[in-house]
Amino acid sequence: MPLKRPISVWSEVTPKRVYLNRRRFMAGAMLAAAAHRLIAGARLNVALKSPFSTSEPQTSLDVITHYNNFYEFGTDKAQPANLARDFKTSPWTVSVEGAVSKPRTFDLDMLMKLAPLEERIYRHRCVEGWSIVVPWIGFPLNALIKQVEPLSSAKFVAFQSSFDHRQMPQAQWAGIAFPYVEGLRIDEAVHPLTLLAVGLYGEALPNQDGAPIRLVVPWKYGFKSIKSIVKIRFVEQQPPTTWNLATPREYGFYSNVNPTVDHPRWSQAKERRLGEFFKRPTLMFNGYGDQVASLYAGMDLRKNY
Ligand SMILES: Nc1nc2c(c(=O)[nH]1)N[C@H]1C(S)=C(S)[C@@H](COP(=O)(O)O)O[C@H]1N2
Ligand SMILES: [Mo]
After folding, report:
1. Which of these ranges, 16-25, 61-70, 283-292, 296-305, has the smallest mean pLDDT?
2. Dist. CA 27 → ligand 1 center (Å)
3. What does the pLDDT read at residue 37?
């Protein structure tokens, strides 16, 4: 499915000198905007609305920001909203390394200029059995991947969250190892649905939702969508992932939403959309099968759960 492109036809409708002046002005304005863009609560300018967005009702901002899984800031759903309040997200860098020809450390301004920001309204299905619909703002992970030019030996991408025990004292009680780590196969990472989110509901990400930059992989259980990313590494072997390390019998590497493969301790056939009373059936690949099922052709999804 082709993404809509920004319209840039000024040169065709405006005299050249006016056009150049306007362009210089716009470039200045955009630079000024970029410097402020990712401060908490800052409005983000969205250039593109995505054809991948669902038209289902969006979960309220209040729920999205007060019912969180972010174990670094506590294991209760209400804790991250309070305990991540003062988390320092600026300055911030994401180091991109490993099997690439151009390893690089990106600061937030560089990340914000990689691609036009898009709104992506995605379903999010947590492995615990609840779901939400989130109007994310971000850009395809693929835009970053293109910059570093992966080598052909790069078969997987490993992600690492920020971890600072002084800012995350609750983490010691979480019962999982930190820093939180996740991974994708390279074809999953470059898939156009795979998003690096920097905002939601029109503003820079709230800390509890993974500020300043997090992954969103809508056809996988929510735990694959790693928050507050500081490192991305291209590797040859399947990398370790936090929930697989913690409980390998319960959580595999792929973690595709699959109503026919139950968690060992509960069914995955249904889900509760937060804010709704009745449960609804869970869809294969969380409803994104048309776009992603081909990635898993020939794989046994009971074994590769
Ligand atoms: N670093 C980190 N990333 C994380 C988690 C976490 O505990 N730590 N929880 C995951 C889980 S289980 C879910 S469901 C989503 C929740 O994202 P949300 O709070 O923005 O809805 O974040 C995922 N990313
Ligand atoms: Mo989750």
Report:
1. 16-25
2. 35
3. 61
User: Looking at the domain assignment, is residue 23 inside a domain?
Assistant: no
What separation in Å is there between the alpha carbon of 150 and the centre of ligand 2?
Answer: 29
The amino acid at residue 289 is G
Pocket of ligand 1 (CB under 6 A): 68-72, 126, 161, 180, 209-210, 222-223, 225-228
Which ligand has the shortest distance to the CA of 182? 1
Q: Are 279 and 268 a contacting pair, CB within 8 Å?
A: no
Taking 60 as the threshold, does the pLDDT of residue 214 lie above it? yes
Domain containing 138 equals 48-296
Closest CA to 123 of 16, 3, 238, 217: 217
Compute the distance between CA of residue 133 and CA of residue 120 in angstroms, rounded to an integer: 10
Segment 109-114 shows an average pLDDT of 96
Query: Residue 163: which CATH number?
Result: 3.90.420.10
